[in-house]
Amino acid sequence: MALETVFSMDASSIKFGRGATREVGSDMKDLGARRVMVVTDPNLTSSEPVAVTLDALKEEGIETALFDRVRIEPNDVSFKEAIAFAAEGDFDGYVAIGGGSTMDTAKVANLYTTYPAEFLDYVNAPIGKAKPVPGQLKPLIAIPTTAGTGSETTGVAIFDYSEMHAKTGIAHRALRPRLGIVDPENTRTLPRMAVACTALDVFSHAIESLTALPFEKREAPENPRMRPAYQGANPISNIWAAQALEIGSKYMVRAMDDPDDDEARTNMILASTIAGVGFGSAGVTLPHGMSYPISGLVRDYRPEGYPQDHALVPHGMAVILGAPAAFRFMAPGNPEMFLKAARLMGADTRGAATDDAGEIVAQAVIEVMKKAQIPNGLRAVGYTPEDVDALVEGVLPQHRVTKLSPRPAKAEDFRQLFLDSMTIW
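Predicted structure:
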């Protein structure tokens, strides 16, 4: 088996600063679009970020059509609804205003209208056929209103596949937005639990990409076009991940506790974007792989601050519920980087042995979870040990991320990780 010797660093162009949303019309005009699909979710339809965006596009003479039916934690059905809207509209550009669900929906609408195909053709293997995107997509500008997913920087779109009750996704560099407009003003009205969940997603993105399997330990692709978007930790991604973890650790709790703390909100959305650049190259690992069935198999849980029309475990919550157990498991595969992560989080690692790395990181994460008032384990969101077989079945197809674990995990390992996550403290 030939090992990889090359990595690449691709990212969207980023515009950052308070009030940057007002420049979206000029930016889209520069990209050559004249008829734009504006994508958002129902909670933001009447919001200031959407109004500012529509006005800015209108001022530049750009025609718009608003699609505001994004499903929080999208599934294949909601994606197909957006694709149909896009196909009928004959758009030459897209603007997404919202969280990861909105940005991912816009990416998929752009993909399937630019290069029509059967839905599973572009979906990650083994669920889909993982066909490469044939070429460049139409311009997409992403405007995040949460500080968590980093989706404005990545070529990934995640969704619940209804038939399997598990999350999967589409991953290709061509899906990356042409521009991410990161405006701290757009996060001001987020409910506390949404701030907590998205902040913890930043936290886990940074830890996972920093401690992932190094790129040079992956099998080399047969040709460069088959090199995955998630390539393993590398010297450049490590810089971005470390910076995001340091900033997030400093400002996360402040941003959760005080929505008027402008410094904290600004730094958290900055950390989200920085982490996105890092994991957009390195990838994520077991906490994200485990999160997909945790979100996909939810029955009745409805968190405060989120839409109450359907049960959901928010993505960041689903990720962090499995993180302590996963970090303990993975640390023996890359103990030095786990100790580095612990130091960046502010943990005291003086005198710590490499065998202590996983527990130190896990305990640091648990302390943040407590401050964020995250439910204490999978039981608290409705799961029991009887659900573990289904959870394991849902994580096994997630090769895109689970294969990046520095310590390989088998079905029996995942079974124990889910059991260990039933009650965390």
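Summary: The radius of gyration is 20 Å.
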